[in-house]
Amino acid sequence: MADSRIGTEAIPSPVASELTPAAFIVASAPREARMGLLRQMLLSLEDATTDGHGYLMAKVMILFRRELLELDARFTTEQRALVDHALNELEHEAARLSPEPVAFQRGARTLVDLFALA
What we know:
Layout: E1 4-6, E2 9-11, H1 22-28, H2 31-44, H3 50-71, H4 77-95, H5 101-117
Antiparallel strand pairs: 1-2
């Protein structure tokens, strides 16, 4: 991008690499680091506010869907059906008006462990 000018002072434009979205950084991290991030997000549910529960659950679901895209070919048809069922249960919990973080954590930890082993 070209410099923007205010008066006579040049203001440097941001470099494209500085605008890299966090999602890209997470996606390019090794699986072990991504699973660590998911585990930390699940631990954060314990201290989050009610609004924070919904926010964190939504973010976890996005990351789970992204992991599933990468790991899909490694699962048998039966395993994929179980993963889909678990994800649907988590989505149902996350979409509740007052989601239960303990129930979400339990199911999500199982998926994190499964994805980490795949």
